[in-house]
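Project outcomes to date are best conveyed with an example. Our students and postdoctoral researchers have been running inverse folding experiments weekly, and each run begins with a structure described purely in tokens. The record below, which covers 162 residues, was selected by the lab manager from last quarter's runs and is presented without edits.
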């Protein structure tokens, strides 16, 4: 269990880390590392390996919104059934059960504000269990999953000299 936690901690920081490198770092054999990784994947502890991309640097103009959703939970299944219906929409990247005024937080990616408005109007709000929504648009990402998008020490202003 301790080795599993060490491996998970390493790949959480760098998903590109090779098993050979982990073996050296943890003083274990490559076979042991590969076996633990295979077990973690089979047990659905490792669900995927993600890359964080700064699309703005490539000039991409997508839109991300966080939508707070108040729903009526269903008898016997609570929020699970409606959350499942929502996360199956292709525009949805994340769904979280929340405490507070709203029950679910839904993260949606689209090409434009109009597409997000259409998603909320024609897909999300038409679900019988949905009582109300509040949509927040992401204007700028500063940090995501522990990764800072802009170096605060990077000089951005032009030097003015007399």
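After processing, the design step wrote out the following sequence:
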């Amino acid at each position: 269990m301790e080795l599993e936690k060490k491996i998970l901690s390493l790949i959480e920081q760098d998903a590109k880390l090779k098993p050979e490198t982990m073996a050296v770092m943890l003083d274990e054999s490559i076979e042991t590392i590969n076996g633990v990784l295979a077990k973690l994947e089979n047990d659905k502890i490792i669900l995927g390996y993600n890359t964080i991309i700064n699309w703005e640097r490539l000039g991409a103009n997508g839109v991300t919104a966080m939508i707070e959703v108040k729903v009526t939970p269903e008898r016997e299944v609570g929020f699970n059934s409606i959350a499942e219906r929502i996360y199956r929409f292709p525009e949805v990247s994340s769904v979280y059960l929340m405490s507070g005024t709203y029950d679910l937080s839904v993260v949606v990616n689209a090409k434009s504000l109009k597409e997000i408005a259409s998603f909320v109007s024609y897909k999300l709000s038409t679900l019988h269990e949905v009582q109300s929504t509040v949509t927040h648009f992401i204007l700028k990402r500063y940090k995501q999953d522990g990764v800072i998008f802009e170096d605060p020490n990077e000089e951005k202003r032009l030097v003015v000299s007399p």
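The longest helix spans residues 30-42. The helical segments are 2-13, 19-26, 30-42, 80-87, 113-124. The training component of this project remains on track.
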